[in-house]
Design goal:
The structure holds two protein chains of two kinds. Chain A is an alpha/beta fold. Chain A has five helices and five strands. Chain B folds into six domains: about 5-150, PAS domain (Beta-Lactamase); about 200-305, Beta-Lactamase; about 335-430, Beta-Lactamase, CATH 3.30.450; about 445-545, Beta-Lactamase, CATH 3.30.450.20; about 570-650, Helix Hairpins, CATH 1.10.287; about 650-800, Heat Shock Protein 90. Classes of the chains: A alpha/beta, B alpha+beta.
Chain lengths: ~140, ~800
């Protein structure tokens, strides 16, 4: 397990967390999944990564969250000198043009609308795993 | 040197009677000698200084003897001939000085001798007489002669000798005198003839029958006939026919002795046929037996005077000037024609008499006039006054009445004469002017503005009441005062403005701010402009209006406007906030509703898959229904979001090709339709419309999907696109042969969540057409539909025609 860098899932809705975890399980994802239940928790990881803990392979970020929202987290990480190369995939229910635009402006690497249909959701999970954990290459 | 003899003594001592008279009309006695006093038995003091014939008149008891006449004639002869005149023996009785009044019989032999001055003029006449009474008496009666001879025979003889010589001399003188008289007669005739011929006025002598006996050159000149021609005519021939009767009448009066002469104005017809006015005076000369001898006529050309008179009458007529006289003795009034016209009195009537006159005047005017006339009558004071007249036709007028007294030779006032001049028009103009002046004054006084009129020296000519109030003039009468005297503190700034306007400028200011001495602010609107009299500047008019209250109102309004803008800003902010909350609501819908939905969907799916063997058929049906509900809900949320987005999204107006978009839409939809199941035709010209690409695509997709959906169950589904231009708009038509709809729902179908069919028949959220309507609204277009149940439906959408760009590249390359 420790061979594989983790994936950080930032999601406040416990049902979504559970369904996402199940979906990744079903497609045999080997990377461990860390959970941050809101933006605050997500940003709390930063000092730990700075301190030398393994940085995540990917961050799946919801936008609409209490306290600190996804966009703030995104901006903070993408302006962080050493953390900005961490791929951040915005995974959200919102199809708003404004959200999409804001996310990309802040440096999001991808924007994926969560499908309501579970089969399609499974499909999305599979493709994320395939692309970001297998196909994509990150800097050293 | 010889001593001059004492002439006075010589004269006094002379043995013969001498009397010295002056050659004047009275033959005043200047000297007499003692012998003369003796023989005439008079006293020196009684006769010197008196007239000769006063002292020695004819004897009234012997009227047949006119001895004074003879003496007078002799004296006149002396004066004219300047040499002595010996008179024949005269009986010249001498009044007795005894106071009885009786005369003493005396015969005299007088000799009158002139005393000439150096120039040869007669300055005195010496009247020398010899008393020959005794001699005459002796010759008259033998008895008396015999009885007297003895007393002075010698003296008598001598005297006879002397007298004989004198008589001879006297006969010669008489002859000479007759000769001279004849000469004088001839001279007189010659003078008369010359006068007749050369007289400036025409003279004619005519027989009692009217035939010319003699005419002079002046008369010939007047009538234009040569003398011989005129002589062959009668006066009747040259008299203007209308005037002849009056002439003949007057001549008859002359002949009948009723009048001695007459003078009249008449007309002659001249040789050149012109009619000429002449003044004519005719006298009749009678023979010694009083039978008519001839007429003598004096003719004067008065044509020029007549013309001047006519002209004068015309002038009087034009000037409405009439002339009148009032004879105070006869009380006869005479009026010129113009007087009748002025008073509106009929021409045929006689002039109005004293009583009648009053009716022609208003009471006030008559009282004034009658007083003036009375004064004129009494004291001869001429008058002139305006009077208002009332004509018989009840119209009013104004005259100037002038009058003066006419006096006779003794200075008594015998008549009044004067003129009346119609000045109604002038008076009316004056009244009108007065009226307009008063109106102007009232207008200026009560003008609802501050107005003042000044002359070139800035003296007040008029000002409005408002001006007085605005400038606190109170009741001070400023008319005639200088503005700068009324307001000594007036600034140079204003004086300069006044001067510029007096030079012709019009200066105004719609908003001028003044600070009063008490610090309050005054806003004025003012204008200064010159006023003109016959194109020269007579002064200026200043108009000011206190617009402080207006200014305040304006400021209030501005404040209000500012407030309003602020309120609008606030309201806008509120609306923005509202919109934001709506956006966040929609955001919540998209996010917060979808998240639990995804949970329901996910777990029902997991249940279905992971627990499949633990569920019976009914349990699986339930799960299936749950998932169908989730799908429907998901669609609803998606459509709602699309609608909301359409409402909020920014519309970008582009030029869109209708045909291209339709074909693209057909291509997209065809993918989800069973090939050959629906016939879709689009024969569309490439209209360019103005709209939002995504919006129009959404509209077309929705309408096509709708058409497919509602025609899928008919035998041969057929959908047809069309497009046409209507003015500045383009209409796109989508017609299907589907189930159609009742036109009573034509409006409702575009309302959100409105559905005409149950879900199992035709699935849908009831948002599609509402979305179409909303999209077209946003694109400045519209949508409507026509249809009937079972007969298909036609949807029309209308969008503005795209404006062609002014520069077309193809056009440019072609040139």
């Amino acid at each position: 397990m420790s061979d594989h860098p983790p994936i950080l899932l930032v999601e406040d809705n416990p049902l979504d967390v559970d369904l996402t975890l199940r979906a990744f399980q079903r497609c045999n994802l080997t990377n461990p999944i860390l959970i941050a239940r809101d933006g605050e928790e997500a940003l709390a990881w930063i000092p730990r990564w700075e301190a030398g803990e393994t940085m995540p392979l990917l961050i799946l970020l919801d936008l609409n969250m209490p306290r600190i929202d996804g966009l703030t987290v995104l901006r903070t990480l993408k302006t962080h000198a050493s953390l900005r190369s961490i791929p951040i995939v915005v995974l959200t229910t919102s199809q708003e043009e404004r959200d999409i635009q804001n996310a990309y402006d802040a440096g999001a690497n991808s924007y994926i609308v969560k499908p309501v249909d579970f089969d399609r959701f499974m499909d999305v999970a599979r493709q994320i795993e395939l692309y970001w954990c297998v196909i994509n290459t990150l800097p050293g | 040197m010889h001593e001059s003899p004492p002439y006075q003594q010589l004269f006094e001592a002379g043995p013969h009677p001498y009397l010295v008279v002056r050659p004047n009309s009275d033959f005043t006695i200047v000297a007499v000698n003692a012998k003369y006093l003796e023989v005439t038995d008079t006293q020196r003091e009684h006769i010197v200084g008196r007239g000769l014939f006063e002292v020695f008149p004819d004897n009234p008891h012997q009227p047949a003897i006119h001895s004074t006449d003879d003496l007078r004639a002799s004296l006149h002869r002396v004066i004219s001939a300047r040499h002595p005149d010996v008179m024949s023996i005269q009986q010249y009785d001498v009044p007795l000085r005894d106071g009885s009044g009786r005369f003493e019989l005396k015969y005299w032999s007088p000799v009158n001798t002139p005393v000439l001055d150096t120039a040869g003029n007669v300055i005195y006449i010496i009247h020398h007489v010899e008393d020959v009474t005794e001699f005459i008496l002796s010759r008259c009666s033998e008895d008396q002669k015999l009885s007297k001879i003895g007393t002075g025979t010698e003296r008598m003889e001598a005297d006879i000798m002397l007298r004989a010589a004198e008589v001879k001399k006297g006969v010669n003188t008489l002859f000479l005198e007759r000769q001279r008289a004849n000469e004088q007669l001839r001279e007189s005739e010659r003078r008369f003839q010359a006068t007749f011929e050369q007289a400036a006025i025409g003279i004619a002598i005519a027989s009692p029958e009217g035939c010319w006996l003699q005419v002079n050159q002046a008369l010939c000149d007047i009538v234009g006939y040569p003398p011989h021609e005129l002589m062959s005519m009668s006066f009747q021939d040259i008299t203007y026919p209308d005037d002849l009767e009056a002439d003949l009448k007057l001549l008859r009066c002359l002949l009948g002795g009723k009048i001695a002469t007459y003078t009249r104005e008449k007309r002659y017809v001249c040789k050149d046929s012109t009619v000429l006015w002449v003044g004519l005076t005719v006298s009749l000369v009678r023979k010694s037996d009083h039978s008519p001898d001839y007429f003598i006529a004096f003719v004067q050309n008065i044509q020029a005077r007549k013309e001047i008179e006519a002209h004068l009458n015309e002038v009087k007529r034009i000037a409405h000037l009439g002339h009148w006289t009032w004879n105070l003795n006869t009380h006869e009034h005479k009026w010129s024609e113009e007087v009748f016209q002025i008073y509106g009195r009929k021409l045929g009537l006689p002039p109005a008499d004293d009583q009648e006159m009053a009716r022609y005047f208003t009471a006030a005017s008559w009282n004034t006039l009658i007083a003036a006339m009375e004064k004129c009558r009494r004291d001869g004071i001429a008058y002139q006054c305006d009077a208002e007249i009332i004509r018989p036709d009840a119209t009013y007028g104004w005259i100037i009445a002038r009058g003066e007294a006419v006096r006779d030779a003794d200075g008594h006032i015998v008549a009044l004469q004067g003129t009346v001049q119609d000045i109604t028009e002038r008076k009316q103009a004056e009244v009108a002017l007065q009226h307009s002046k008063e109106q102007l004054k009232v207008f200026i006084d009560y003008a609802p503005a501050s107005l003042a009129m000044f002359d070139r020296d800035m003296r007040y000519l008029a000002c409005s009441q408002r001006w007085r109030n605005d400038y606190a003039l109170g009741n001070v009468d400023v008319i005639g005062l200088r503005h700068y005297d009324v307001f000594p503190d007036i600034s140079q700034h204003w004086k300069d403005i006044h001067q510029r306007c007096l030079a012709g400028e019009v200066i105004r200011n719609d908003e001028d701010r003044f600070e009063r001495s008490d610090g309050t602010i005054l806003w004025l609107r003012w204008e200064v402009r010159p006023w003109l009299v016959d194109a020269t500047i007579g002064g200026i008019v200043i108009f000011t209006e206190d617009i402080t209250h207006l200014k305040h109102a304006e400021e209030t309004l501005q404040q209000l406007n500012a407030t309003l803008e602020q309120r609008i800003a606030e309201r806008t902010a509120e609306l923005k906030a509202l919109n934001q909350s709506l956006e966040s609501f929609v955001y919540s819908v998209s996010h917060d509703l979808k998240a639990p939905l995804r949970g329901v969907e996910g777990y029902s799916r997991l249940l279905e898959e992971d627990c499949r063997d633990r569920l019976d058929a009914e349990g699986r049906l339930f799960i299936s229904n749950i998932r169908a509900g989730v799908t429907r809900m998901n669609e609803l949320i998606d459509d709602l979001l699309a609608y909301s987005r359409m409402e909020r999204r920014k519309i970008e107006p582009n030029v869109l090709d209708v045909a291209q978009l339709i074909h693209q839409t057909i291509a997209e939809c065809s993918a989800s339709v069973t090939p050959g199941a629906v016939e879709i035709i689009a024969d569309v010209s490439s209209f360019k419309v103005q709209g939002d690409r995504e919006g129009l695509a959404l509209v077309l997709r929705n309408l096509l999907e709708n058409a497919i959906k509602f025609s899928q169950h008919v035998a041969h589904p057929h959908i047809e696109f069309g497009a046409y231009q209507a003015g500045e708009r383009v209409v796109i038509r989508i017609r299907d042969n589907g189930i159609g709809f009742d036109m009573k729902y034509a409006e409702r179908i575009f309302e959100i969540f409105e559905r005409l069919h149950r879900l199992e028949e035709y699935p849908g959220t009831g948002i599609g057409l509402a979305l179409v309507k909303k999209a077209l609204q946003r694109m400045n277009g519209r949508v409507w539909a026509q249809g009937a149940p079972g007969q298909g439906a036609t949807f029309y959408i209308e969008l503005p025609l795209a404006k062609t760009p002014p520069d077309d590249d193809s056009d440019r390359s072609a040139s």
